[in-house]
Amino acid sequence: MLQLLFGYFAGMIAATSILVVALRNPVYSALSLLVMFFHVAGLFVILHAEFLAAVQVIVYAGAILVLYLFVVMLLNIKQDDRYHSQWRVAAFVCVPLLIEAIVLLSGGSRAITTGSRLLQTDSHGTIAADNTLAIGQTLFSTYLFPFEVASLVLLVAMIGAIVLAKRDIGESDTQSMTQPAVDE
Amino acid sequence: MTEFGLRLAISLTQIAAVMVIVVVTVLILTLAERKVLGWMQDRMGPMEVGPYGILQPFADAIKLFFKEDIVPAGASKFLFTMAPILCLIPTFIGFAVIPWGPNWTFEIDGISVKPFIISDINIGILYILAFASLAAYGIILGGWASNSKYSLLGGLRSAAQIISYELNVGLSIVGVLILAGSLSLVKITDAQGGGFWNWYLFALPAPQIFAFVVYVISVVAETNRVPFDLPEAESELVAGFFTEYSGLRFAYFFLAEYANMMLVSCVAAALFLGGWQAPYPGTIMELLGLASWSWIESTMWFAVKTYSFLFLFFWLRATLPRLRYDQLMRFGWKVMLPIALGNIVVTSIAVFFYQQMK
Question: What DSSP assignment string belongs to A20-66?
């Protein structure tokens, strides 16, 4: 049953990921991305990581993708052909990667199975019934430093966005008084 | 396999019961809103269909059902059809984790059944937030797929508004989660038993009054109700994102809006007002020696709290004018967000010292 569910989720993720880049209409691409996020959340659920599944949907599907859609609709691109018919470049990048993946999967299959078994025993030890608690405790004890660094990086990105968007920082206030709409 | 079958049958029965409750409540709400608005504006409200107009919702439903279904020229047919359904389903799914009554467990052929909740998952409130955030897609896509300026503008406004205020909803309930130490709605309501002074709105060490105000204002904005109904502002955008919709698809949007109102009211009742817990310790039915009937009292309290909330929605609609768009954004980001963040800081410090003292 679990194998079947995993197969379904993995297959849908692969299919919708291809659709994201293959569809011509950007709005439909964004929608396939939405379906993909949902199936990634489904994968988290069959791993008993419900907290991550919910966060996946809230953050990616609920916030980031809505902003993508927003931009796509504001730009009103019905058909963008600039990035299509570039299959030569795509093939040049993807064929080596594909060969690499096949070699890794066939040659190193034993290493991967031992690795995954290690991962399973490890996860069964730490993840108890309440995975929200487990995530919180590991995040704020073992991974406290990376967590703080990540928040700092996000802060830099936020300040950058404000500096780029707000051109009249440091200029006199009279200009923004005459154009109140720019202030928002 | 029979065990699986029985489990499935029980779950389907529960889902059907909740769906019936939600749809009946929505029917009542459509009538109640017009009646309450009428009385507040010194009118009678609908009076024609049935005695005092109580059959008006059925008349509306039949009318919408038989209306012509128009798809505008140049519209994206697939998305135009999908949008109302995308709006409706996330709202209905959210009701799966609402505890309607006491946390009882029955044994039927060795299967434990919780009669007053469909599914008690340990991330209940996050589950509701996750699906509530998806309701925005129905609105945006409906606006885009209609191939109309007014619809597109309405949809985009709603996208900005829902993202801004969803954040405040999420942050305002963090205080309650800190106090309860759980994300499960069942555990949160259980922890508030024994009188109204234990409800998280008033509970020591950190009463969540400010969080409650932020939550109420933000959910009014998230459900696109007056005074935050910019996505469907009649005087500027005809009808916003559902300008081009008619008949049954329009009815879906309508149903989704009212079901969403009901969902946020249920969540507010469960998180801040003790859910099904009575405002006094225990229940009256237990004192009368009818402990097995006390669920009626509990569910009635839940209904009373939810309906008081819904009444607040109508009251706001009758009282307040619509905000301007920049006022809406400024209010959300510069007033609501700092209050919600401040509440989290204060609550965590209070809870920390409270636990140290114990």
Answer: HHH-SSHHHHHHHHHHHHHHHHHHHHHTT-HHHHHHHIIIIIIIIHH
